[in-house]
Amino acid sequence: MPVLGLGGISAPSLLCIRRDTCGLVAEEAVEVTVRVGRATLDSLAYLGGLARLGGRAAYFTFVAPWQGRRLRLDRAAHQAMVVGLQALPILSLITFFIGVILALQSAYELRKFGALHYVSGAVAISMTRELGPLMTAIVVIGRSGSAFAAEIGTMKVTEELDALETMALNPVQFLVTPKFLAMVVMLPCLTTWADLMGILGGALFGVAKAGFTFTSYLRSSLDALYLRDISTGLIKSLMFGMTITAVGCHEGFSTGAGAEEVGRSTTAAVVMSIFLVIAVDLIFTALFYFTGAH
């Protein structure tokens, strides 16, 4: 007579069920491990590709001209116009509003302690250390990072990259280097302008509601700032520019066949650029904090 287990199921049947369940759990655990490992390797390969492309662009920008290779300054100047000057209107508007918002949020708490006169310093430090470089990077990603991916992706689909190689033109030197140089130069400049517009936005609230005059607000903002506050923001913006260029161009070179792939590359460039800019921001903020730069 068979021995009955739980629920009237025989013991051998219950043992088989347990074995099957354990086998399924083990298979799922292995599958999850494989997925995590594959995702990790893909991520490292992607970062390696970015580093390789960025390193080659830096070589053609800073080293190759001293070895007799031409640096296409005319193309870099055109890219600087597109990346920098044409971004000023939307960047000015956004960062001005950010400055007003920061002043309102700071005043909400500082008013409880009768310390509205600290609003100017809070806005100035927040803009120069963090929000100025970050908002500038996000605006540039939307305008230029996506355009880099779309331009190079379209050239790959239409086989223009193959044509460049046929004419003995290195695609990285011809296409990426001018963009790299333009971003390295223009991102710190745009960040400086964004910091100024944010401070002016805060001044709108300071003059209207916090008892400042325009001159006293600017003087108070300057008194609250140290050189390290501005320099750390500019260093971040420089790294953001390199990151945006590398991601946008890498996604362009990775574009598959067909017009749909160009759209995919453009979307991926925006998403990955924002993610990596935030990651770079975190790394450098922690670095500056632990080295005493803040």
- Unreliable residue runs: 1-6
How large a portion of the residues is in β-strands, by DSSP E?
Answer: under 5%
pLDDT averaged residue by residue:
86
Oligomeric state of this protein: single chain
Q: State the helical fraction.
A: over 70%
Q: What is the number of strand segments? A: 0
Secondary structural class: mainly alpha
Number of domains: 1
As a whole number of angstroms, the C-alpha radius of gyration is: 27 Å
Give the H and E element order: HHHHHHHHH
Largest sheet: none
Number of helical segments with 4 or more residues: 9
The coarse overall form would be globular
- End-to-end CA span: 79 Å
Q: What features would you describe in this structure?
A:
The chain has 294 residues and is an all-alpha fold. It has helices at 11-63, 73-83, 88-110, 119-157, 160-166, 171-209, 214-224, 227-253, 259-290. Helix 1 packs across helix 6 (171-209). It is globular. The termini are far apart.
